[in-house]
Write a structure and sequence with these properties.
There is one protein chain. The protein has 435 residues and is mainly β. It has a domain of 72 residues. The chain contains one helix and 37 strands. The chain has a four-stranded antiparallel beta sheet, with no helix packed on it. It has a four-stranded antiparallel beta sheet with strand order 7-8-9-10, with no helix packed on it. The two termini are 19 Å apart.
Amino acid sequence: MKRVLLGGLKTLALPRWWLSNRAAFMLDAANSGFEAKLSLTVGNLRKSAIQESRSMSKCCSARRLIAAFLVVAINTPTPAKDGKELPIQGGMILMFVPGQSKFLMQGGRTMRPERGIYGFAVVNAGDGKVIGVIQRDLRKNPQVSPDGASFMTLSEKSDKIELWQTSTVKPRKELDVLKSPSDVAFSPDGKFLAVVGHIDDFGAPLALKAVDLPSGKERWVMPLAKTDSDRGTAQLATSKSGELLVAQSGVWKLVDFQTGKVQAAFEGRVSRETEFSSGGLHLSHDARRFVHVTRAFVNVWEVDGRKRLFTLPDKYTPAYTPAKFVSGDDRHSDILVIGSRDGLVGMLNISTLKLTEFGDKHEATITDIDASATKRIAVTASEDFRIKVWDLETAQLIETLVADKSAVRTIAISSDGERIASCYENGSVRIWNLK
């Protein structure tokens, strides 16, 4: 049900379906002595409401129209739930720490105001306190361990992998595994670390190596490139069942994380483009299929059959819109949530290959997507100032969050699905409680 406030006179509860996009509806306030017929567009509700109220004020008596405007509360939650603004500015929300109310944020004026945006920080979502700042030029975003106790970084200026304690943002360990590492991945249990890099200096063949944590002791190593001239790059993905997928220069291999034994391999146009979008490379929870997201296309591949199964339509090209992979389990399928150029949000079921478009849309470009696998909900951010929360089981809108008259740049949702962190174009950072 939706609530409509008529000039402070009477509050009516209207069915949700009455207020669908561009739906004409009638508000009959018999007790207040007037009838207002309105045809409103969801995207311009506030503007239309004010225009209608001005028009009614000319033809209705003061007794019948006490208020000068009509407020239509079309978006849940109510204005009281407008998000808590934190005492930090700028930057980009990266991710929540699993099982904790902390999130990682890149940049931010509060972190280093005298030198502009640099490095990244761990922030307490409750009060916005910056727990610690790491001033590094990173090759890729930090990765958090499955238990949330530590995270790792790859510096542009060093070949060493740095492990940090999440609670204090203090150094835990430096690992010298391979030269010029390009990607790293935690094992599902957090006991091992897989690294892609060069055996010697840059230009030497690529290799994949697994080490124990936190000791850094080598478990196994696997050469990837056939010749010294085959440099390229590679990307990693892991499954909940303990497999590791590595894709490099048109070749992919499925490897047992603990032993390094190759379970399947294929040569074909799988990873020809190395400029990955935010979607990247994703392995299904049972390691039977994987999703390859580049700036040009989104493909679903079958591991056993060694063939491409599905390609998303062109309007979902990741060069223009973000994508988020949601890992499944024995009861839920793996899902890829991706935005389209026209503001629609699509959901691809990796098991059935069914593409479902959500029951609402943004009015502008989608800027970021995140999801909670635990609660099976997704959140999308847009230049239309809105954050939308979606039910992944029904593909329906749960609620819309609006606080700032500024484009939402990045968002992240906690693993339990109870908090959202959002960063805006005007520099503000807000926390939303979904409990």
